[in-house]
Amino acid sequence: MAKLKVMCARSMHVAVKALGQAFAGQGGHTVEFEFGTVGGLQAKLDAGETADVLILSVPAIDKLEQAGLLAPDIGEPTGPAQLGRPDDRLRDAVLRTAMRHDVARTFIAVCIRQGAPPPDIATPEAFKQTLVKARAIAFSDAAVGGSAGVYLVGMFERMRLTAMIREKGLPQQTGAEVARRVVEGKAEIGLTLSGEVASVDGAVIAGPLPKPLGQDTIYCAAVMAGSGAKEAGAAFIAALTGTKTRETWKRAGFEMPG
Predict the structure, then answer these.
(1) In degrees rounded to 5, what are phi and psi of residue 218?
(2) Which residues make beta-bridge pairs with 55?
(3) Confidence band, pLDDT 50/70/90 cuts, at residue 74
(4) Distance, CA of 161 to CA of 153 (rounded, Å)
(5) d(CA 28, CA 26)
(6) Long-range Cβ pairs for the range 161-170 (8 Å, 24+)
(7) What is the distance between the alpha carbons of residues 214 and 227, in angstroms, rounded to a whole number?
(8) Range from 91-95, 99-103, 144-148, 177-181 that averages highest in pLDDT
C-alpha cells in the first residue's frame, strides 16, 4: 500500500480531508495532508518541496505542467495489454484520465451571520453601497497569498474603496477567520471563498459577488512527476472527482466543474 503526500489549497480542507480519509480507509493507503494558500504552497514548491498529489488553482497547475513537474499522461497501452488483457487496458485508461483532473469550483462569497437580514448585493452599485454602510468588513488578506485576497485588493481599487477599506477593513489570515469575525459580530460583512464560509458554524453565504465583479476559481488535482506512487495518486484523484462526491463538495461550499 502507498503513502501519499497531498499538498492542497486550504479552502478545500473540509471536503478533501473527508474524501481522502475515506479513500485511505477503503484502500489501505496512508494520506498525509498539507494545506495552505495557493501562493504559500507555490513558494514551497519553488523552494524544492515535493508531493505526490497537488490540488491548486488551474493557473498554478498549468505553470507546474509547463515546468515539467507533473506526471505526463500515460500513452496507449503496450505489452500485455495489447495481447488481450482488458485489466491492463483499463488500468492505463484510468491513469491517462486521472493524472490531472479538475476537481471543484469555488467563488468569492459575501458572508453574513446566520439570522442577519440579507444585504443588497444584486448589482455592483448596490454591493458598493452595502460595503459603504457596513460598520466593519472582514476579508482575506492579500499578504497571505490566497487567491481571494489578491483578487479583492484589485477589486477595492477598481471600485475606489481602498481608502474606506483601510479605515474599517479587517484583513484576516484565513477565510475561516473572516467568517468567524462575522459570526462574532466584529464585522457585518465578510468576503472570502465560499468553501471557507461553509466550514464555520453560524456563517452563511448571502451570495456571490455580483457580476461582473465575481471571480470563480477552479481547482485542479495532478500527480507530480517525481512521485513514487503515481497509480495511488491517480486513484486518489479519482476518489475526489467521482459522481458520488457531489454532495460532499456541495456541503463544503463548492460545485463540481461541468
Answers:
(1) -100, 125
(2) 8, 221
(3) low
(4) 10
(5) 6
(6) 161/128, 161/131, 161/132, 164/131, 164/132, 165/137, 165/139, 168/134, 168/135, 168/136, 168/137, 169/136, 169/137, 169/138, 169/139, 170/136, 170/137, 170/138, 170/139
(7) 36
(8) 177-181
- The pLDDT assigned to 256 comes to 86
Backbone angles phi, psi at 70, to 5 degrees: -110, 150
Architecture of domain 106-216 in this structure: 3-Layer(aba) Sandwich (3.40)
- pLDDT, residue 47, reads 94
Which set of grid coordinates corresponds to residue 63?
505553470
Residue 156 · residue 149 · CB < 8 Å: no
What's the alpha-carbon Rg for the chain, to the nearest Å? 20
* Biggest distance spanned by C-alpha atoms of the chain: 71
Angle at CA 165, nearest 5°, toward 162 and 166? Answer: 85
Cβ–Cβ contacts within 10 Å for residue 169, how many?
A: 21
The three three-digit cell numbers of residue 21, written as one number: 480519509
The C-alpha cell of 101 is what? 483532473
Amino acid at 52: D
Domain coordinates of the chain in residue numbers? 3-104+219-251, 106-216
pLDDT at residue 46, rounded to an integer: 92
β pairing state of 53-57 and 137-140? unpaired
Q: Please give the pLDDT value at position 214.
A: 78
pLDDT tens per residue across span 235-244? 999 999 988 9
Tell me whether strands 137-140 and 203-208 are parallel, antiparallel or unpaired.
unpaired
What are the beta bridge partners of residue 171?
139
Nearest to 148 by CA among 179, 109, 193, 106: 193
The CATH class, in words, for 3-104+219-251 is alpha beta
